[in-house]
Design goal:
Length: 703
């Protein structure tokens, strides 16, 4: 490195300043204002880092790379900060990116410094390599060149330390609600590059048509003409390779952005929106999202490139023997193409809607198959299926006819029209060979474009219809989200004691579901103090689960006020409120995800997790009586569970849900009928564990 390590390593107390400068240089986020620095010489908690990201208006993602992964991290993870630990004191390298094989780091004086990747690797691996002195001792008695010694040392360290975890770093990304320019990044420049390279490629191909056509019409296909034609075709190879490469990068970037936006929109759906759509329609949305990604990203771009070919073909036809009349015929045929594409879109839209509905119906019937077997008479198992399938078949036939018209008529129709409009100039003998060759080149270029555009129009049409199915998810990204106004130094701790031990205070809380005329909760007032143990009983449909969703922040009261530590939800922000209150939903709304038992236990904490949290999770499982289950599993806590893994009983799932909730370490734990599927002895064990670990507790149950 050309500068000392002290100039490049940011201390913990200057971490807010480092991240703010990194965000500004990338065009992300906003100024964070005055922020109290974290404690010196102590690694900030993840809660504090996430809160700092919220203040800056960016997303911070923790990464804990392995020793052998570090070169890839340096190449691809920017912008990010990477931790260096010296004498137990953490400090950070601020990585802006790479340029010409070197890393661009932000120094403490806000200047950008270029360093060799090798130097940064040595600095970041310094802590781990300090424990491998025996490698140097082993190599000390071997005679070899310095270069060979360095290579042997690096390979031996890689073999020994390859799976060792390095210190936690943080990748910075723009929020999903950032400006369109920020989210798109270099995607517009990639599209411009593709457009330029494709235009040049089309001109080269048109030139090759002209050379070959002129030589053929003049009846002298000599070696020189043939070699010239080969040379022109050879020029198209690098242009085509460049275009394909850029198209691949463009598709990956845009597809990634689309998936990120869809995920962000899905996470902003309300519980009622998720419940009312049903699993079948959600599955259909997933399928339509794949269609949009595969067809819109590729088909839309290629359709634009085909239109560029048509424009070039029109210019070439004007310069050829057919002149303006032939070019006008091309324009009219393009109009016909758009009319056919529009008709195809209308049918495609109806067909896609029918497909989503039939998918929804199929999944609903699959989920309820056991119920149908047990309670529905045999003769009614397939009621309505023939009618739906028949309607779907009819609309599929109509769409097939429209597709055939679009694919066959466009290409073959243009070839006939193009040659007919060239016939007068050819038969009169007034046009020279060069002009005829130019016209033939224009016709062939347009023929190639129509051949491609028929397929791409189908793809764009299908993608446009599919987009209508997922539009609500993309629009949901822009929904405003409450941001925390709690001082950063108080994140993760108790904000205030001003309420004198009061945790939750609700006054006049009212809530009504959209589908109902009367409120499910009306003028509801209560208070929960720290250390309280509350049993909430009521009849089915009485509003117990609705109250739980209000307490956890999944829903917002339509009237009244609900305070946590005398502060409302707007002060804590959506995520800040949920960090302090958590609930185990009812059994049918809680799920075991496909993953390890440990992953399901620590779902509400960071992952990968620390050894301390794993130890705490194992101890809690023992208190809940899950230690016998874990002992039976061949991989213990790492055993895969879920639909395709180790199958858990209802009681085991219930205790897993309870453990998952307690391990979040929040101030208020809410258990919604979590003991309902436990036998009396197991329930007493679980209740004792919950009472020992919950700081404040609300248990929802039927009378």
């Amino acid at each position: 490195m050309t500068r000392s390590h002290s100039d490049l390593l940011w201390p913990v107390e200057r971490l807010p300043d480092a991240l703010e400068q990194l965000a500004q240089r990338q065009g992300y986020g906003r100024a964070a204002g005055e922020i109290a620095p974290p404690a010196a010489a102590v690694e900030p908690s993840r809660v504090w880092m996430f809160a700092l990201g919220d203040r800056l208006g960016v997303e911070l993602e923790p990464i804990t790379p392995l020793y052998h992964e570090l070169p890839d991290v340096l190449e691809r993870a920017a912008p990010c900060i990477l931790q260096v630990r010296r004498d137990g004191v953490p400090s950070y390298l601020v990585l802006l990116g790479t340029r010409r094989g070197k890393l661009r780091l932000l120094a403490r004086d806000a200047t950008v410094v270029s360093v060799q990747t090798k130097s940064a690797l040595a600095l970041l691996r310094e802590e781990q390599e300090a424990t491998a002195a025996e490698v140097d001792q082993l190599l000390g008695g071997v005679e070899m060149s310095p270069r060979a010694r360095e290579h042997a040392r690096s390979q031996m360290l890689l073999q020994r330390l390859g799976q060792a975890q390095l210190r936690t770093g943080w990748i910075m990304r723009p929020r999903r609600t950032a400006s369109r320019r920020t989210l798109l990044g270099d995607i517009p420049s990639l599209a411009a590059g593709i457009l330029v390279s494709h235009t040049l490629l089309s001109l080269v191909l048109a030139g090759s048509f002209w050379l070959l056509g002129r030589a053929a019409l003049q009846a002298h296909l000599e070696t020189g003409w043939f070699l010239g034609w080969i040379a022109v075709i050879a020029c198209a190879i690098p242009l085509r390779m460049l275009e394909v490469w850029w198209q691949g990068v463009f598709s990956i970037r845009l597809g990634t952005l689309l998936k990120q936006q869809l995920l962000a929109g899905t996470l902003k759906l309300t519980p009622d929106e998720v419940r009312l759509d049903g699993i079948g329609r959600h599955f259909g949305r997933v399928a339509e999202a794949e269609v949009v990604e595969q067809l819109a990203v590729g088909g839309a771009l290629l359709a634009v490139l085909s239109l560029v070919d048509l424009v070039l073909a029109g210019v070439i036809l004007v310069l050829g023997a057919g002149g303006w009349p032939q070019a006008m015929v091309l324009v009219l045929w393009v109009v016909v193409a758009f009319v056919l594409a529009r008709r195809h879109y209308g049918v495609q839209r109806a067909w896609s809607g029918a497909r989503v509905e039939i998918t929804h119906d199929l999944l609903e019937r699959m989920l309820g198959h056991r119920t149908r077997l047990a309670q529905l008479p045999l003769e009614r198992w397939h009621d309505g299926e023939d009618v739906r399938l028949s309607a779907y078949s009819e609309i599929s036939k109509v769409m097939d006819r429209r597709t055939m018209q679009l694919t066959a008529l466009l290409r073959d129709g243009w070839l006939v029209l193009g040659l007919l409009t060239l016939l007068p100039a050819f038969s009169s003998g007034t046009a020279n060979a060069s002009a005829l060759a130019v016209s033939v080149g224009g016709i062939l270029l347009a023929l190639r474009a129509f051949d491609e555009v028929a397929v791409y129009f189908q793809q764009v049409s299908q993608a446009a219809v599919s987009f209508e199915q997922i539009r609500d998810l993309l629009l949901a990204v822009g929904r405003p989200e409450l941001e925390s106004k709690v001082p950063l130094e108080m994140e993760g701790g108790k904000p205030t004691d001003a309420a004198g031990g009061t945790l939750i205070q609700a006054r006049g809380v009212t809530f009504r579901h959209d589908a109902r005329t009367r409120p499910v909760l009306e003028n509801c007032s209560f208070q929960i103090a720290q250390g309280d143990r509350i049993l909430l009983e009521g009849p089915s449909g009485g509003g117990k689960s609705t109250l739980v969703s209000l307490l956890t922040g999944l829903r917002t009261p339509q009237g009244g006020v609900m305070l946590l530590h005398a502060l409302d939800r707007a002060t804590f922000g959506s995520s800040g409120w949920r960090k302090r209150i958590t609930a185990a939903p009812q059994f049918h709304e809680n799920h075991v995800l496909s993953g390890s038992f440990a992953y399901n236990l620590l779902l509400g904490r960071e992952w990968p997790t620390s050894p301390e949290l794993r130890t705490k999770a194992a101890a809690l499982c023992k208190e809940l009586g899950l230690d016998e289950l874990i002992a039976k599993m061949p991989a213990g806590l790492e055993e895969m569970i879920g639909e395709t893994g180790w199958q858990l009983s209802h009681g085991e799932k219930s205790r897993l849900y309870i453990a998952r909730t307690l391990l979040q370490g929040v101030e208020l734990v809410i258990l919604d009928e979590s003991f309902a599927s436990l036998d009396p002895e197991t329930m007493r064990v679980a209740q004792r564990c919950v009472l020992n670990h919950a700081k404040a507790l609300v248990v929802v149950s039927h009378p």
